[in-house]
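PROTEIN DESIGN WORKSHEET
SECTION A - STRUCTURE
LENGTH: 365
TOKENS:
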């Protein structure tokens, strides 16, 4: 075995990876069944309370809720799968055999790390393509109390947009793109932060050089004079999609869609820090699967007959659950603006990566 080899053999690497993946997904399946059953018990009454709902709607809820449960508890399953794999190998003295062959602790851990990278890639794709759509549909369904879903025609209410110093409020926007129609338009004409005039119009449409509103009632704040004009063009640099973005649910958007939405909101002059944290978290959350084998590796080393195997497994579980607590706390701090978006999403991952490495090095010594 050369110094560049990560495992003693391909057979051992496949054996460890298969053991790890089987235990991980078996634990995940058990958690999903139990948690989905408990969740369904709490929600089935609300689903069936809507007139006409029956078994079909209950199963529809299960199909929409299950992806969210899988996404939430996959990292937990990876942690428990890691601990169970290493506890089994430790009890069978397989870890001792690998260490006796000259492997370091990092080399023993490598097959599980590579397998967890595959789990992280699958998790990201699953979250991006399945969970986001299921969450968006379930959120809309719950807003109508599990009744028929309304057709989303892109209508938005009470939209605010900034055009330079000016503020524009739209009571309702309909349609998309060049076909966007505005209703109850109010323009706060400002210069250097000082309000100069207030313009009101019942309707507005997209034209080549901006948005034509009319008839316009213009109140001159400085002169205290009210005048009416047939129409005027405003917001020359405002795009139609800036009027159609009123509220954003990051859990209901894919990574690419959320990134595009953040860019549109930023161009509209609206705050995006919380959404930027959620965007980064869509990357750091699947990668937590790669972190779990490192945190759970403490269960692999030490003699099983010393009586400390259970304690080591408990330490691994404590490290893993501490990561999830820190991750949720940092994300909450990012949502209220206390942490920068990048720090809120990545600080717990980097912190526990260092903690896991420190524990692993200490264990090896």
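SECTION B - SEQUENCE
RESIDUE ASSIGNMENT:
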């Amino acid at each position: 075995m050369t110094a560049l080899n990560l495992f003693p053999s391909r057979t051992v690497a496949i054996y460890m990876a298969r053991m790890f993946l089987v235990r991980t997904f078996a634990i995940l399946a058990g958690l999903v069944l139990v948690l989905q059953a408990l969740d369904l018990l709490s929600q089935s009454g609300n689903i069936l309370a809507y007139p006409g709902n029956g078994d079909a709607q209950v199963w529809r809820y299960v199909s929409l809720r299950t992806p969210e449960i899988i996404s939430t508890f996959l990292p937990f399953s990876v942690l428990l799968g890691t601990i169970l794999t290493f506890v089994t190998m430790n009890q069978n003295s397989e870890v001792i055999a690998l260490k006796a062959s000259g492997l370091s602790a990092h080399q023993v851990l490598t097959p599980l790390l590579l397998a967890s990278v595959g789990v992280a890639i699958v998790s990201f794709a699953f979250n991006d393509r399945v969970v986001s759509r299921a969450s968006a549909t379930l959120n809309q369904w719950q807003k109508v109390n599990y009744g028929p879903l309304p057709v989303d025609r892109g209508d938005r209410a009470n939209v605010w947009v900034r055009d330079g110093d000016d503020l524009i409020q739209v009571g309702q926007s309909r349609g998309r793109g060049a076909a966007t129609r505005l209703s109850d338009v109010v323009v706060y004409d400002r210069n250097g932060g000082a309000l100069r005039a207030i313009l009101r119009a019942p309707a507005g449409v997209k034209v080549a050089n901006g948005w034509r509103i009319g008839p316009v009632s213009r109140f001159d704040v400085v002169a205290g004079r009210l005048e009416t004009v047939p129409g005027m063009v405003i917001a020359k640099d405002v795009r139609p999609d800036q009027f159609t973005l009123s509220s954003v649910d990051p859990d209901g958007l894919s990574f690419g869609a959320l990134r595009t939405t953040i860019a549109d909101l930023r161009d509209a002059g609206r705050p995006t820090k919380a959404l930027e944290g959620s965007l980064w978290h869509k990357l750091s959350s699947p990668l937590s699967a790669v972190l779990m084998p490192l945190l759970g590796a403490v269960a692999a080393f030490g003699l099983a007959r010393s009586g400390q195997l259970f304690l080591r497994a408990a330490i691994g579980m404590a490290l893993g659950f501490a990561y999830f607590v820190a991750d949720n706390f940092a994300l909450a701090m990012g949502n209220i603006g206390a942490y920068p978006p990048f720090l809120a999403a990545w600080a717990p991952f980097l912190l526990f990566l260092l903690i896991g490495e420190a524990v692993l090095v200490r264990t090896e010594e």
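SECTION C - NOTES
Residues 10-148+274-364 form one domain.
The helical segments are 10-49, 55-91, 94-100, 105-143, 255-267, 273-296, 309-335, 341-364.
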